[in-house]
Amino acid sequence: MVVKMTFTKKELFEKTRLLWPDSVDLNGQYFGEIFITGGEVLNEIYQKIESSLDKNDHWMQISCWSFHQAIEKPVGDSALISILNDVSYEVYEKMMLENLNGDECWQAELKIYGSLESD
Fold this sequence. Notes:
Shape: globular
Helix content: 40-55%
Radius of gyration: 15 Å
Low-confidence stretches: none
Number of domains: 1
Number of strands: 4
C-alpha cells in the first residue's frame, strides 16, 4: 500500500519553522519567572513546542526535533539567532535523514520521506 502524503519536504520545514520565534537571544530570556541563557534557551523553546504537538503527529515530532538540531549557534560575539536566516533547509534535511535512519521504528516514515517532493 502506497501512502500519498499531502505535503512536500519544504512545506514540512516551513510549517515547523513557523512554530519558532523569529529570533532567539542566547544572552537570555525569561520563561515565566525563570531567566535562562545560552543553549538552554533553545532547549526551553523546543520543549514548549514539543509539548504543544499532537503525540500522534509523528511527522511534526521528528521535524521539530530535526529543526532544533539544525539551528546553528551564532559565530563570534553575536548571541542573536535569526530563525528565518540562520536555519537552512539543507541542514534541516540532513538532520531529518539522520534521525529517520537512526532507529528502526522510523523505517516506514523514512521510505515515505524519501518519496516526498522537495518543493
